[in-house]
């Protein structure tokens, strides 16, 4: 019997229509706009000046705090400007604008397709290499990977789980890399297991990706320490807490961190980036982006350098069809609407989704009929209808009592609500307010 | 038959009397001594329970003001000075007069001057919209027009004008309780002195972007050029973070800044229309 997580979850139609589109290398761009906020935490500080010549893979910005990261030039050329530019939400973020001239790489980067299997590095060396390569979690949250590979001293990691669930509808970038580069992903897993000092590894993949499961299982024959686990199709299985429950049957305590179960979860894309950083010296300068939508005649999976404007990607993919009413960065469940299509891609962008008017239309809001569908769907065991009522009344003490801080913002409640109540919209705000109050309290 | 009715009535009367006596003694025994002045003060207060004074409601205000040694720190924005004077009289205290305030809308980005760059189709709440992205125009500081202020106002004094796309304050109804100021996620609304004869001069913009960006996003924004600050003879205007601010305690309402502002971001309210300039039409007057 296939495994899955035990509480809640929904079954949106998976719409993996771009699954058969092999990864294409995106054509060279003329100008790259590299955001300094590529990761969760403090934006990086530029270390290049206007007029400097940079090579592909050269460090152009350094971390400015513990939770921050390096940023490398994705192209070779001249730094033209360093100034704020609008990101996908329209907020101004410092960007380094580089005019592309040729494609010259740093000399220490190994660009051959040969797979290097020996890992001569110690745990500290691996973590340093991962940090210097500017790797962040590519599952969407873009949390700096080196921080996750060095858990606090009082917590002991017991196993590594590679996240290949890709439970969001439409997205296929992880599916494609698992089909095309399975051994490199597993090697990335082995490297991270060495860094964590654990001997057990898992790859969790949902059953709707049989080709990826087959290729990963085949490649895993040479790596007995890593087990490929086939999971039932269920959203939000790719959530860190849900995946740990599904694979090793342990639940993260309320308000706690996933490391408390002894598991460290990393996305398969991150794993591939770790392999390339450690074995090939290649920093994180590109990622696979799915360009999909039912209104698009041709689906694509592009390997895109970071800093490519999304409008450019759409143009190369064949232009925005007239029927498309909404652009989304990421999947339809947790992705964010793109308010500014001229925004450049960042490390954690995984998809550009085009939806039509019919697909995005909101149901008119009516009254809660207490059907409790949201409570059954919530994967964190919360009561969204109650949080919604408390949130609208602004009752912060009660919201905290009802554990609003445990919400993972997966959107199952809004998805399942027959009355069309925007539950997540209200809960997300309430959560932010409650967390702000909780953080402002003096620590014991 | 009549007997049964009479007995029932008698029994009920006896029981009623018994309970009345018990309740009377219980009430005497557990009587709560409340300062009678609290009731007096509460009767003077408007009873809107808006929370504009910072207390939990009118009763809490009355309780605390009676307990406090002086009137300092207590002000009912809804009732204003007349109510505060009456309360002070009832308590036998002195009270300082406060200048009446009014909520001021510091965004002038109407639909005409601020082009929409995208369409928001999410939950109609400014708070939710502001948490998701910069907004549906090029200006990320401006009014989102989803009416969180309108929902927060208990006095029907602020409304989102569908033609302008921004909130508009009805100054006759506004009591300066501050509910809208708290509700606005962009911090656009501000409480300012109502001013002599309700006349006010203020900068109707809070865009902190550089001038060129502001101009691109909105035709009526403050570009931080500083002309107003240079013109002001009373040192009332400061330009910080590319936006001007008029200190209402220093402003003498000479309106020189209004004339020099290149984008019309400085507003004057309730001034009589200016007389035609004498240099332009001198001969007309002679005719």
Please, could you describe this protein's structure?
Chain A is α/β, with parallel strands linked by helices and 444 residues long. Helices cover 28% and strands 20% of the residues of chain A. Chain A has 14 helices and 17 strands. In chain A, β13 (286-292) and β14 form a beta hairpin. In chain A, α1 (123-132) packs across α4 (182-196), α3 runs parallel beside α5 (210-220) and α11 (384-393) crosses α14 (423-440). Chain A starts with 22 loop residues before the first strand and ends with a helix. The mean pLDDT of chain A is 93. Chain B is α+β, with helices and mostly antiparallel strands. Chain B has 2 domains: 36-91, Orthogonal Bundle (3-methyladenine DNA Glycosylase II, Chain A, domain 3); 101-269, Alpha-Beta Plaits. Chain B has 11 helices and 8 strands. Chain B has helices spanning 2-29, 36-44, 58-67, 80-91, 126-132, 148-152, 179-183, 211-217, 227-231, 256-260, 282-286; strands at 101-105, 158-161, 166-169, 189-193, 200-203, 237-240, 243-246, 266-269. In chain B, strands 1-4 form a two-stranded antiparallel sheet. Chain B has a two-stranded antiparallel ribbon with strand order 2-3. The longest helix of chain B has 28 residues, at 2-29. Chain A binds chain B through residues 86, 88-92, 326, 336-337, 339-340, 360, 362, 422, 425-426, 428-429, 432, and chain B through 117-118, 121-123, 125, 127-128, 131-136, 138, 140, 209, 213.
């Amino acid at each position: 019997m296939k495994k899955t997580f035990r509480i809640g979850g929904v079954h949106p139609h998976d719409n993996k229509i771009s699954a058969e589109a092999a990864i294409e290398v995106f054509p060279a761009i003329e100008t790259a706009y590299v955001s300094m906020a590529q990761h969760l935490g403090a934006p990086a500080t530029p270390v290049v000046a206007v007029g400097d010549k940079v090579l592909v893979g050269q460090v152009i910005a350094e971390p400015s705090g513990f939770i921050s990261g390096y940023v490398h030039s994705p192209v070779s050329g001249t730094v033209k400007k360093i100034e704020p530019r609008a990101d996908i939400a329209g907020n101004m973020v410092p960007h380094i604008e580089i005019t592309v001239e040729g494609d010259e790489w740093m000399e220490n980067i190994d660009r051959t397709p040969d797979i290097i299997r020996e890992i001569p590095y110690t745990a500290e060396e691996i973590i340093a290499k991962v940090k210097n390569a500017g790797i962040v979690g590519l599952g969407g949250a873009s949390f700096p990977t080196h921080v996750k590979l060095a858990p606090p001293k009082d917590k002991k990691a017991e196993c590594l789980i590679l996240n290949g669930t890709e439970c969001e509808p439409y997205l296929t970038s992880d599916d494609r890399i698992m089909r095309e580069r399975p051994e490199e992903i597993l090697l990335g897993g082995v490297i991270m297991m060495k860094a964590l000092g654990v001997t057990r590894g898992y790859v969790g993949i949902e059953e709707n990706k049989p080709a990826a499961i087959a290729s990963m299982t085949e490649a895993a024959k040479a790596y007995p320490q890593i087990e490929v686990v086939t999971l039932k199709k269920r959203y939000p299985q790719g959530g860190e807490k849900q995946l740990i429950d599904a694979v090793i049957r342990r639940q993260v305590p309320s308000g706690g961190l996933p490391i408390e179960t002894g598991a460290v979860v990393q996305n398969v894309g991150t794993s591939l980036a770790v392999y390339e950083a450690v074995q090939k010296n290649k920093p994180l300068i590109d990622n696979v982006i799915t360009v999909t939508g039912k209104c698009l005649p041709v689906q694509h999976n592009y390997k895109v350098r970071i800093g490519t404007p999304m409008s450019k990607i759409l143009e190369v993919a064949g232009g925005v069809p007239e029927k498309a009413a909404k652009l989304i960065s990421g999947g339809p469940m947790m992705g964010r609407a793109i308010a500014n299509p001229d925004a450049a891609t960042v490390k954690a962008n995984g998809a550009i989704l085009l939806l039509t008017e019919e697909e995005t239309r909101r149901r008119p809001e009516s009254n809660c009929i207490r059907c409790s569908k949201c409570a059954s769907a919530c994967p964190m065991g919360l009561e969204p209808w109650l949080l919604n009522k408390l949130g609208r009344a602004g009752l912060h003490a009660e919201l905290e009592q009802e554990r609003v801080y445990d919400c993972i913002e997966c959107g199952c409640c809004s998805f399942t609500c027959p009355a069309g109540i925007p539950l997540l919209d209200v809960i997300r705000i309430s959560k932010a307010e409650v967390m702000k109050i909780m953080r402002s309290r003096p620590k014991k | 038959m009549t007997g049964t009715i009479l007995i029932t009535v008698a029994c009920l009367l006896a029981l009623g009397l018994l309970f009345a006596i018990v309740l009377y003694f219980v009430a005497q025994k557990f009587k709560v001594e409340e300062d009678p002045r609290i009731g007096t003060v509460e009767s003077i207060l408007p009873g809107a329970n808006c929370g504009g004074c910072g207390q939990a409601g009118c009763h809490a205000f009355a309780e605390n003001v009676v307990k406090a040694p002086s009137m300092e720190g207590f002000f009912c924005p809804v009732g204003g000075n007349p109510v505060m004077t009456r309360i002070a009289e009832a308590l036998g205290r002195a009270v300082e007069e406060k200048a009446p305030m009014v909520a001021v809308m510091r965004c002038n980005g109407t639909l005409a001057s601020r082009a929409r760059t995208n369409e928001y189709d999410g939950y109609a709440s400014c708070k939710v919209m502001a948490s998701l992205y910069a907004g549906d125009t090029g200006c990320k500081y401006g009014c989102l027009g989803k009416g969180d202020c309108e929902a927060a106002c208990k006095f029907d004094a602020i409304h989102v004008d569908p033609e302008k796309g921004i909130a508009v304050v009805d100054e006759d109804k506004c009591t300066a309780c501050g509910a809208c100021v708290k509700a606005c996620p962009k911090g656009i609304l501000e409480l300012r002195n109502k001013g002599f004869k309700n006349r006010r001069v203020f900068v109707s913009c809070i865009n902190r972007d550089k001038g060129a960006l502001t101009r691109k996003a909105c035709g009526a924004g403050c570009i931080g050029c500083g002309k107003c600050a240079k013109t002001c003879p009373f040192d009332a205007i400061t330009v910080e973070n590319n936006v001007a601010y008029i200190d209402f305690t220093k402003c003498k309402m000479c309106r020189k800044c209004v004339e020099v502002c290149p984008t019309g971001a400085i507003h004057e309210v309730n001034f009589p229309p200016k007389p035609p300039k004498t240099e332009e039409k001198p001969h007309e007057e002679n005719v």
